[in-house]
Amino acid sequence: MKISEAQIQNVIGIYKEKKMKKNPEIFTNTHVILHNTSLLLVSLDLKRYHAKYREIPTVRENLVQDLKNKIQSGTYNIHGLDIVEKLMGREAADLLSDISSSE
């Protein structure tokens, strides 16, 4: 399953909110420097992961071709349980996202 750009931005937003709640503004010089260094490291990590995400093609040609071949040959079968599992997984992810953003 591919993770959408919106989902990544949502996770980044939640991460930033939780980080800010755990680390309120610190006024001493030493703590500000440490806090800024920590933010810089997080920022570098996010940039690295975002670059890796950008490398994933929007359309994965091998999967599309495989599906086309199965559909054309009549061997593409979807089981009801697979559909239910995907729907429930999506609902669970949305619910967790809603809960996290309301905290």
From TrEMBL:
InterPro entries: Anti-sigma-28_factor_FlgM_sf, FlgM_C. This is Anti-sigma-28 factor FlgM C-terminal domain-containing protein. Residues 46-88 form the Anti-sigma-28 factor FlgM C-terminal domain. It comes from the Bacteria. The lineage of its organism: Bacteria, Pseudomonadati, Atribacterota, Atribacteria, Atribacterales. It holds the Pfam family FlgM.
